[in-house]
Amino acid sequence: MTVIEARGLSKSFGTTLALDAVSLQVEAGRILGVIGPNGAGKTTALNAILGLTPYQGELKVLGRDPWNERDRLMRDVCFISDVAVLPRWIRVSQLLDYVAGVHPRFERAKAEGFLAKTSIRQYSRVQELSKGMVAQLHLAIVMAIDARLLVLDEPTLGLDLLFRKQFYDSLLNDYFDGSRTIVLTTHQVEEILHVITDVVFINRGRIVLSCSMDELQSRYAEVAVRPEHVEKARELQPIQERQVFGRSILLFDLKTHGNLALLASFGEVRTPGIADLFVAVMGNGDNEPCRGAS
């Protein structure tokens, strides 16, 4: 089923257009990574999905209007913000008591099982925990709620590499079951490659690329061009060229130039990194999305 469907989704703050007629469709059982620079519209889009801000256009989340049916929607949705705001005075055990009392789909035993794999103790206060441990605590609570949609806004911001890896490993191994849907934003682009099934690039309130990871890998190619072939390769109009250790690296959209054999004759062909592709697409206003974008 379709979990999120947006058509002509727009949102303005004064004269600033945060979302500009965005169209997007997310199916159940997918993990969508939303990537964009600061101010691109990522958080505004998530807030609309969560029913936290009014909007123009059409938006359905799990078949409901998020703004008018938020109470019902949030029974099936969990959210982790870039800043996990938990009362600093509260003890872990008290936090579990509270969530158990307010959320009918919270399984305390499951949360305690997740926490048993960490160094967090139930008698500890939140103020005694590191930022990484707070993120682990927040994730343990969320993973113990039987939700159909999990929304993560920069969930590992400020965490060190070890905690970021543990976070995503737990997300995949302990939470994602192939039927739940996850939408996440992040600045650690390369770290989510093994996590996401689909990716959206957003800039200035518009989606400039929307692809499954399989589509992305089959559509774009990067060529480390040998010096004698640089001019011929440039004639094929790459979407980006950069220099790495004195060698020209050209990135091609195979939708406009699909002759891999010809590209291979210029040098080594490989799949581009998502960060390099992001930089290239953001600098190419004429690039067309793979699918499902406005």
Core attributes:
single chain, 294 residues, alpha/beta, Rossmann fold, Alpha-Beta Plaits, 2 domains, six-stranded mixed sheet, four-stranded antiparallel sheet, 10 helices, 29% strand, globular
Q: How would you describe the overall organization of this protein?
A:
This protein has 294 residues and is of the alpha/beta class. It has 2 domains: 2-204, Rossmann fold (3-Layer(aba) Sandwich), CATH 3.40.50.300; 215-282, Alpha-Beta Plaits, CATH 3.30.70. Helices cover 30% and strands 29% of the residues. It has helices spanning 42-49, 70-73, 92-102, 108-115, 131-143, 161-175, 213-219, 230-234, 260-266, 274-282, and strands spanning 2-13, 16-27, 31-35, 56-61, 77-80, 149-153, 181-185, 198-203, 206-212, 220-225, 240-244, 247-253, 267-270. The strands form 3 sheets. A 6-stranded mixed sheet has the order 5-6-7-3-8-9, sandwiched between helices. 38% of the residues are buried. The mean pLDDT is 89.
Give the topology, please.
Layout: E1 2-13, E2 16-27, E3 31-35, H1 42-49, E4 56-61, H2 70-73, E5 77-80, H3 92-102, H4 108-115, H5 131-143, E6 149-153, H6 161-175, E7 181-185, E8 198-203, E9 206-212, H7 213-219, E10 220-225, H8 230-234, E11 240-244, E12 247-253, H9 260-266, E13 267-270, H10 274-282
Parallel strand pairs: 3-7, 3-8, 5-6, 6-7
Antiparallel strand pairs: 1-2, 1-4, 8-9, 10-12, 10-13, 11-12
Helix pairs in contact: 4-5, 5-6
